[in-house]
Amino acid sequence: MATATMSPTTDFIAREDAWGAHNYHPLDLVIAEAKGAWVTDVEGNRYLDCLSAYSAVNQGHCHPRLLRTLVEQASRVTLTSRAFRNDQLGGFCEDLAQLCGMEMVLPMNTGAEAVETAIKAARRWGYRTKGIPDGQAQIIAFENNFHGRTTTIVGFSSEPAYRAQFGPFAPGFVLVPFGDLDAVRRAMNANTCAVLIEPIQCEAGVLMPPDGFLPALSALCAEQQVLLMADEIQTGLGRTGTLFACDHEGVTPDVYILGKALSGGFYPVSAVVSRREVLEVFGPGSHGSTFGGNPLGCAVAREAMRVLHDEALVERSATEGAWLLEQLRTLRHPAIKAVRGRGLMCAIELHEAARPYCEALQTRGVLCKETHSTVIRLSPPLVVAHDDLVWAVEQLRAVFDEQDR
Ligand SMILES: *Cc1c(COP(=O)(O)O)cnc(C)c1O
Known about the structure:
By secondary structure, the protein is an alpha/beta fold. The chain has helices at 8-19, 52-55, 64-76, 89-100, 111-129, 151-155, 160-163, 181-187, 213-223, 276-279, 295-310, 313-328, 355-363, 386-402, and strands spanning 31-35, 38-41, 46-49, 104-108, 138-142, 173-176, 192-197, 227-231, 255-258, 270-274, 336-342, 345-350, 366-367, 370-371, 375-378. The protein has 2 domains: 8-59 and 312-402, Aspartate Aminotransferase, domain 1; 64-310, Aspartate Aminotransferase, domain 2. Helix 3 (64-76) packs antiparallel against helix 11 (295-310), helix 4 packs parallel to helix 11 and helix 12 (313-328) packs parallel to helix 14. Belongs to the class-III pyridoxal-phosphate-dependent aminotransferase family. This is ornithine aminotransferase.
């Protein structure tokens, strides 16, 4: 291929493919700028972002308030490490604990690190509070889970692509079918310290538990003295039309695991939020992270929480999401198997591969990424304008019409 005939897009892709590891299968557009719900590629084409970086940019791309906070904080102090204190950490923990109705916060950076932190907390809590024999703690998780990519976490994944040839894996995890209370009950024993659950399994294809499952699970955990740990990294902070997906069923877990939109896409900030009793198992030296709780991340995350509140993004997610779901339900095409969603986390499940539909949507200016090969997930930033959603539905309709053979 002669360099002279390469488009900017081809050139960027060629360099990424030559020098970067191929651990993703992205759509072939190269984004150079973004604002709100829209992104612009290196050729100047505009697209409506219906993925939102897996719900990390719920507040919209490059939110001006987050940008201002980032720049202001970056010009003061960015990193102290936890060897010293900084003037942002306390306020961040206070705001987040109050948002969650909890007592304590342990900040980390990525989602997977927060999940790892919750696993450590649950095990130590189990040894100290329940008297589980050392090294015997067991955590129940669910089939089709997605909790991140560390070796411990992929060790209890049921997805071969996430696990193959990455073992040996850590013991201490049991998998049961998502939504099967009897299976959870059977899996529980005296060594069970926690149940780890996504209240909606987004990566698995936006799978909802049966009605009543979460409250029953919560009651079972309370009865058996087992921590209910909700991984709300993707579902939390308004994505599903309530602050947390657990709220749909009136459930308060013992532990919230948060990330992604916690910092509105500016900076990786994650956290475990729980009661004092749980997070106090960590004493000095027992856990840590060089960047966890850094002042830059804390400042941005505080502002990101305020933006959610000030712009009523949880409410927007509920109303716009309900409208979008209703529209999606009017789509008629033999390839459509099911349509489901909560808030602005919607999905169209197909009888066939979703990738060609995502590529067709891309040519019409709508960015979606297939999940689990047959599901088109629609999760635009919560700031998306209603008219933009109307337009996106028109593009979806057109794509299904075109694919009608
Ligand atoms: C994205 C995600 C994670 C992992 O977060 P990273 O920041 O990618 O490590 C964990 N759990 C859920 C439910 C997620 O969606």
